[in-house]
Design a protein that fits this description.
The protein is of the alpha+beta class and 177 residues long. The chain is 24% helix and 31% strand. The chain folds into two domains: 4-112, Homing Intron 3 (I-Ppo) Encoded Endonuclease, Chain A; 121-175, no CATH class. It contains four helices and twelve strands. It is elongated and about 75 Å long.
């Protein structure tokens, strides 16, 4: 196989034309022969800093290694996300990457345990002297008040530092710490 010019890949057209992806999935600056060393970004994904042209100016931008590899090695068209099948952001082997959509990527993250559904717990006081504790969705369904109304009460209260006027049956909403 021959090296692939990175600026020929979909959505990377503005990358400087001196970068190529080798058969070993290394990014090389063809002007200098130097291999660009990937580093981990704040979310743990390997990225390389490449010169791009934006608004007529040359700037350096981080580009995900998995994006470069998937675009070069997997048959594709426009896409939403590139999914790591094993949820390991450092495993950029072609067999571990696939083009996907947000929903599939999120479901895979929950299935593998990379993400967990965390529901904040709230305490709601009603005008008939009830105090209900639980996730906002369950409380809203139980007392028949729209969830967004209850979030609105909570955020107004937290900003004002005190209770807000009664809306529906709800007197106060607070988050359990």
């Amino acid at each position: 196989m021959a090296n692939i010019k990175i600026n020929t890949l979909y959505s990377l057209e503005n990358v400087n034309d001196r970068y190529e992806l080798t058969d070993d999935n290394l990014v090389v600056n063809t002007d200098t022969g130097v291999v660009k060393t990937p580093y981990l970004n704040s979310k743990g994904y390997p990225v390389v800093s490449l010169a791009k042209t934006e608004n007529g100016k040359h700037v350096n931008r981080d580009v995900f290694m998995h994006k470069i590899i998937a675009l070069a090695r997997i048959n594709n068209g426009p896409y939403k996300v590139i999914e790591h099948l094993d949820d390991n952001p450092t495993n950029n082997s072609v067999e571990n990457l696939k083009f996907s959509d947000q929903r599939s990527n999120a479901l895979n993250a929950f299935r593998t345990g990379r993400r967990q559904l965390i529901q904040d717990e709230f305490v709601v006081a009603t005008d008939d002297n009830r105090v209900i504790r639980g996730p906002m969705r369950e409380i809203a369904n139980h007392i028949g008040v729209p969830r967004m109304t209850m979030y609105d009460i909570y955020y107004r209260r937290s900003r004002a530092g005190h209770s807000v006027p009664v809306r529906g049956h709800v007197i106060d909403v607070d988050k359990v710490k």
